[in-house]
Here is the input.
Amino acid sequence: MIETAIMGGINITSEPLRPVRVPQQNRVFLDFFWDLANPDQEVRLKAVENLIQYLQTGDMADELEYTLKRLVDGLAHTRETARPGFSLALGQVLSAFEDISLQSILDRIKEKHNLQAVKKKLARNAMFGNLFGVLALHQSGRLVKEPQVVLGCVQLLQCLIQHKQHLKDLPSKTMTDILTEVTEVFEEVLLSALEADLASAFRTPEQMQLLLVALQHFPQALKPKKLKKLLDSSTIINADNIPKLVEVLKMAARSVKKERVLPSVALDLLKLSLKEDSFQLFWDKAITVGMFKEPSGPTHYLSYRLLGSALPLLSLSQLKEVLSGEVMMHYGEHVVSAQKPDRFKLAPEMDTYVSDFLQNCRNSDKQLVVMVSFSSLTNNGYPVVPSVWQVVQHLEPAALRSYVDWLKGTFLQPQSDRLLDFSTRKQKDESKEQKESSIFRLRKWIVARLASIINNHQVKKHEDLIMDVARFVFFHAFFSAKKATTSDIAETSRNPSIPLDDETRGFSCLPSRLLMSLHHMPLIDDSAAVNQKRSVGVTANGTMWIYHLVQFAQLLLSRPKHVQSIQPFSAEQKQAWDGMLESVANLKRKAKKGRTTESAAFQQLFLLIGMLLFKAPHEVLDIMKDLQSCIDKAQEKKINKKKKQQGEAEPEWVEVMVDILLSLLSQQSRHIRQVCKTVFSSICPHVTAAALTAIVDVLDPDKEDEEDGAVVVTDDGNKTQKKLKVDDDEEQDEDMEDDESEEGSDEESEGEEEEKEMQEGEVDQNFRLELMKVLQQQNALATEEDASSEEDLDDEAMMQLDKSLSALFSEQKKKIEEKKNEKMKLQKERGLVRDFKMKVLDLVEVFVARQAGSPLILGLVEPLLNIIDRGMSSGSEQQEQDFLRRAADIFRNHLCRSKVYCRTAGDRQGELHDLLDKLMSKARKLSDSSLCLYYFSASLYVVKVLRGAPPTETKEEPTADGLRFMGSVDVDRVSNLFREALISFMSRRKSPLTSQMFTDLFTRFPVLCVNLLDTAVQHITSAVRGHQQCQACVLVLRAMQSRDIQQLLSSYEWTQLCEKVSTQLVLLESKMKKINTVQFLRFLFVQKLFVDLEQLKQALQTLTSNVSFKKTGQLEDTYWAVMKHFGVMKPKVDKTKPKKDGEQEAAPKTMKGFLPETKKRKKRNKPVLEPAGDKSTPVTRPGEQKGMTKKKQDKKTKQKRPADSSAASQTNPAKKSKKQPDRKAGKKKKPKQKKGGEQM
Here is the structure.
């Protein structure tokens, strides 16, 4: 039969042979089974589909029988990916051919994969064969029609449950899946077979899962009486069964330790407790008490996951009970302890549970309970959930409003008894201090929580909610209520139960994150088109958010009887505030006539400085006055322009405005930084040289030591701060206090170690002298006469010596600490200065982008180059590298490569030529090629500016007159500068210049290229090194290939140039081996010039005798392409190597199964030496080559000559016999050797 012929390779002659089908069809059919074992899932699925289609076409009885046999055999395949493929195929075949009996297939599976008859090493495969066989029967969808097959499958799975070490819980899950579908035959067929498993439900989680599934799908078959008979109790969850349930849950938790998932039996028990109205008993006794008896581990994690999964199933009262219990307390302790590295963190899973619940639950009351409960879980006052918890975006508007009200109420009246607060062991020792700090930590988190709600654009919120939060934070930062007022100031209705301290106000006053969020707040109902620019920072009526906040501040200032300011304004400050409001009103009126970005930017700046008046009124007062004078002067200048009366040469208001922006940039606030960029971009057209110089002076590395006006570093409690510093908007949520204390102790220990190293490493001579004096005063120094000084000192002297030494060492320790603090202070000061300069670079970038065509842009070339030069030689700190990278990006990409540039040099031609001379001189003297590239790019930029705007170009190619246009460029002077640079590049061994720089020069300015060609041609032979000679060839070749150069040169000049090049190439002679030189020659022939190239021909003909073309084929191909123009063709070389007599014989073809000689072991048993009369001499066989000569044999014997000559004569035939290609001959030789061994 076919299967015996294919699988076993045995021909059965007792039965008549059936006609065999076309081999091609059988090959296609057999390929399906190969694809079923393919590791790729797509290939397996395609094979199953094709197999079903093949079997359904025509009479395929034999193929169907063979298919069933192959599929049943493949269920126990050794490859893991093959078993699902064969199981799926078997299930689909049984589903497609319903005439096949499932009982027969089940019998085949049992017979083929019988666990009692299979060998021990194949037992595991047989287990999987039975399991996947049952899965195939289940996938067929026909189990319901054959109840006896269902019973057989269940019994087979019951046998497989015992082998958990291999199958784990797969048989139980399969049995559960079968039970969910065969509802009709459960009581009749399966109940009696499953009674033993159901009765032992408290033994394993799998059996408990089976019982729970049966209860869920067959409640009529498992009534309380039946359960009483099986389990001795009519219910599963009761007080007597709690210990048993706890053990089942513990086993389930340990079984999924690696998978880190919630066992399904735990969730089913929870659902059953809700159904039996015993949830309180199950949660309190089984989960809260039973699961937390063991130390932290899988049982705890199961409880936390069950808590998250239970959220959608519980009622409102149950949610309140569960989320305020011991399980939540344990979860909070886990979150705190898991912050340490290398700890398992379950918080991301809990976030997913809560997010899914809030997303699917539309009940606002339940959403509020969950949010409040998790926000109330605090560690010493600080909630364990982050202040930027993203789940808030799924809240309904009503729930969000209630949650914000709860946050505000908790901020004003924190009640510790309503919080689920816990403390670590370290925190419990300081209970009194903890109370005050816990309130501060809670209020700090609430302010950050409110700001994050505003900042999260995914949160469904209305404008009134946003303004309510902003008013609340602003009011309690700078004001306090004297007496409750009407509804216009609702913040006065409730006063803090515990007064706000200065530290709390210092954190919450004017949080920059809140202002930043308002600045970037999109429209709530933004219906703008996709490509339309969306408005941000404004309300629906177009008013800025910060303007609403200023109006609220004005309202508070106008109610002194009801509201009291924490820092009341002086008369001068109040006047500045009123002037700010008046200026903003004037700007708004002018903006209505013609709204411009300039007016909006000035409004933002006025409002921002007005808000800063509440934080630092003394420092901001001068800025406010300067800003108002700037606005007045700017308006006066516009009026003068309209009247055509220019009374002032320079608008001084721009310089003052730049100074204001620089002073504001010294503050750590992204909001202030962006407002300064916006304002500066609006005043860019009015910036003067003096204003730009003020910006450049800040960035000048040479004036870094003198720069102390914008940044002031103060040392207050080991904290380095900036002047006018507001709340740090980039501050993240603080860690738990116990972690901070541990980190602090680690830092202290590290500091002590550093001090010890300093004391041991560097010895202060003054300290040594002082120590000698102390010892001499107490006569404690040992002399040459005294062996020890201990005998001469009594107790009083020793005590006095100890005091003196203690005072001396404590003083020395203070000096070391002072030095260390001073060093840290300097480092922080440098960091602040660098951070400030990074912000100033924003202004430079804005000016370069907005005013790229201004003549003032040329004043940035040298300062930026100085920054790059100093940055490359400075330290390797990350902040320094970022600053350097930013400055280099602005210089190359925004300045030098900009399509917009200054095209009107005017009367600055001499200045620009001097600048070009200075840049090229500096570039030649540098040692770093990367830095030289920036100087060379700057030189090309200056030449581009001098040339100015070229004549209008059409779509056609530029003419020679257009190419010769160089504007204001002094061509001779500039050509001499670049010629000197080219000579320096060719004559110096280590030149910072590169050929790519000159290639860019030739490409962008063809006129300069024509002037430099003669110099480049001369250095083809006169360059200092061969590499530079080849670079000269490259430059000349690229220039001659350019169409612009060909247009600029006349025919006579072109011919003369080619003659010079050919003459120089002839002089190279042997150096023509470089590929660049030969390519140059090929280009000359392509031009078809009337130039005498006979000398080149002679030089090239001698090249093959001096140079071998073995390294690269490109050089050889180019060489013969050049010689072809001379009529010399490449000789044909016979690639076949002729055999030479007397040479080494070709190695015989290695037969399969024989090791080559080089792979054989060197140390083998000595071959048996047969007598001289024995026939062991080598005989030449017809299959051997006759190239083995006497010379070859002698050569082998010389390599390894034994002591005995007879042994040597016997080893060669033995070795030769192993090399025989004839396998039969090799097999005959081995028995002889063994036989000889037996005789010996």
